[in-house]
TrEMBL record:
Domain of life: Eukaryota
MF GO annotations: peroxiredoxin activity
Carboxymuconolactone decarboxylase-like domain segment(s): 44-114
InterPro entries the UniProt entry points to: AhpD-like, CMD-like
Protein name as annotated: Carboxymuconolactone decarboxylase-like domain-containing protein
PANTHER family on file: 4-CARBOXYMUCONOLACTONE DECARBOXYLASE FAMILY PROTEIN (AFU_ORTHOLOGUE AFUA_6G11590)
Length: 208
């Protein structure tokens, strides 16, 4: 971490800051505050807004959890956010993403500059729905401007995301781009320069 972590408990004498600590702790419970929290808590108002926004994405959305985690993992791969991958790849597996599909998320070359799905993406273990999510995440992350064809695929009969799901997927990809950039810039968790955990190890761990 490029900064010292903030205290794990609220400093005395400030009720507003104490309330922010309590809200973040309530979302993390029964786990303790994580390194990302202790980075952001140098600015309690920022940490509070962050907790509310990401908390809504994680706990108040209707989009399939596996789909959301697959998108988060793709963002982690594209941005080199080791902390983000290591935290969310196990959640993707628990959400129903297969090991083969998760490996494709990690290994398929970025598709952002391709005007159509690449042969590597099409021949991967990813379903049509997962391929559409990967293309959307790639273009949002690397190009920002999403092609009409890529967006239309999300609403196609084969993929079938509702309007609400499209908004939630978009907010999730955008939100975790924000997360990854904070993680990498500040080296939260001291992960810069480390390897992402292998899918094989994660699958084996899940099967124990």
């Amino acid at each position: 971490m490029r900064l010292p972590y903030a205290p794990a408990t609220a400093p005395p004498g400030n009720a507003t800051t104490a309330a922010i600590y309590s809200r973040i702790a309530a979302r993390r419970a029964p786990r303790p505050l994580i390194p990302l929290d202790l980075s952001l808590l140098h600015s309690p108002p920022v940490a509070d807004g962050w907790n509310s926004f990401l908390g809504a994405i994680r706990t108040q959305t209707v989009i399939d959890a596996g789909v959301l985690e697959l998108a988060v993992c793709r963002v982690a791969v594209l941005t080199g956010a080791v902390y983000e991958w290591n935290a969310h790849a196990p959640l993707a597996l628990r959400g129903g993403v297969t090991g083969a599909a998760l490996q494709a998320v990690r290994s398929v070359a970025a598709t952002a500059e391709a005007e159509a799905p690449t042969p590597e993406l099409v021949s991967s273990a990813l379903s049509a729905r997962e391929q559409a999510v990967v293309r959307y995440a790639d273009e949002m992350t690397l190009r920002v401007r999403v092609r009409d064809e890529t967006f239309a695929a999300l609403r196609s009969e084969a993929v079938g995301f509702s309007e609400r799901e499209v908004v939630e997927l978009t907010a999730g990809i955008a939100g975790y781009n924000c997360v990854s950039r904070v993680l990498v810039a500040l080296d939260v968790g001291e992960n810069n320069g480390r390897e992402m955990r292998s899918v094989e190890d994660l699958v084996q761990e899940l099967q124990k």
